[in-house]
Amino acid sequence: MTTPIDYGVKGYNSYGQWLRQKFDGARVYKVIVDAGFTCPNRDGTKGYGGCTYCNVDSFTPTLPRSLDEIRDQVEQGIARARKHYKAEKFIIYFQPNTNTYAPVERLKALYDEALSICPEDVVGLSVGTRPDCLDAEKIALLESYADRMEVDLELGMESIHESTLKQINRDCSHDELTGLLESLTDTPLNLCVHTIFGFPWETREMMLAQAAEINRFPQIQFVKLHHLHIVKGSILASRYMKEPFPLFDLAGYTDFLCAFLPLLRPDIIIQRLFGIADQDLLIAPVWDLAKSSVQSYIDKELERRRVVQGAAF
Questions:
Q1: Quick one: which of 64, 98, 57 has its CA closest to 81?
Q2: Angle between helices 250-260 and 291-304 (to 10 degrees)
Q3: What is the spatial distance between Cα 222 and Cα 262, in angstroms, rounded to a whole number?
Q4: Is there a contact between 311 and 92 (Cβ–Cβ < 8 Å)?
Q5: How far is residue 284's CA from residue 292's CA, in Å, rounded to a whole number?
Q6: What's the CA gap between 149 and 264, in Å, rounded?
Q7: What b-and-e string marks burial along 68-104, b requiring 16 or more CB atoms within 10 Å of the CB?
Q8: CA dist 255 to 180, 196, 248, 251, 261, Å?
Q9: Where does residue 37 rank: exposed (0-12), middle (13-18), buried (19+ CB within 10 A)?
Q10: Eight-state DSSP code of residue 307
Q11: Three-state secondary structure string covering 208-263
């Protein structure tokens, strides 16, 4: 028997649906670019070692890691997406590390170079960064592209709880994020916040409280919801190997989403429901399913429970 999911109808605002509607049904694919940035939490400006959960290689595809030149990364990324995913339009995604952590002149040169390749088919720019690595000049640079393409500014929120941010060596407070969001009330940028669920010291109630915090900023258009990964090369990995702690299994995480999504403002677009890590680097949790199978499991369970985003908002 067919169900709404079989026809692409979901109980939440999916990014895939938004892209199809925005670009008249065209297949849109993100091309990841590694521009060689570092992070103020790694180079000693604010700290060393980075956030305790982080190993940048764990979420950076092999292709951008293997090529030094931005032009090569974009050209080969587009070619691969056309071949394997039948992609027609592209969003250039500066993802690894902190992608506004440089003088504005350097940022403009990097963004311009990436966007100059195949301009007829590039429909967007997405930049991932930390709230403490933005200022008015950098915001103005990003906004200058928004009159000709979609521009996403992806901000790491991770947790709204200062006690957690201290434990994960974030060196960026939640107040810094909210201060930035408050300054971007009228921005043409698409604002996305990234959050991580499953830190072992956070209760279910602490995690669910993040929905209300996201909801209070109408300028937030997108969210990325991730479960905590333990990856090789991270500080948290060494702690976990010495003394393992509970992590979400797939059923448990799906159950959490069933509680979280009804609390989330119904207009927010969900770019991701779960995290992905390089299997060669992943220590835990291991769900032993392909990305598509995880997505299918979550979607079907959300449908079975009749979960609707914003139903309890």
A1: 64
A2: 50
A3: 16
A4: no
A5: 19
A6: 27
A7: eebeebbeebbeebbeeeebebbbbbbbbbbbbbbee
A8: 32, 15, 10, 6, 10
A9: buried
A10: -
A11: HHHHHHHHCCCCEEEEEEEECCEECCCHHHHHHHHCCCCCCCHHHHHHHHHHHHHH
4-303 CATH pick, 3.30.450.20, 3.20.20.70, 2.40.50.200, 3.30.1390.10: 3.20.20.70
CB 131 within 8 A of CB 177: yes
Identify the pLDDT of residue 279.
87
Q: Tell me what pLDDT residue 134 has.
A: 97
Q: Which two tokens stand for residue 143?
A: 């906004």
Residue 4: band (very low, low, confident or very high) from pLDDT cuts 50, 70, 90? very low
In this structure, what token pair is assigned to residue 288? 């032993």
Q: Which pLDDT belongs to residue 57?
A: 66
Give yes or no for a cis peptide into 285 (omega within 30° of 0).
yes
For residue 30, count other CB atoms closer than 10 A to its CB. 19
Kindly report the average pLDDT of the chain as a whole number: 93
Q: State the pTM of this model.
A: 0.92
Tell me if 310 sits within 8 A of 262, measured CB to CB.
yes
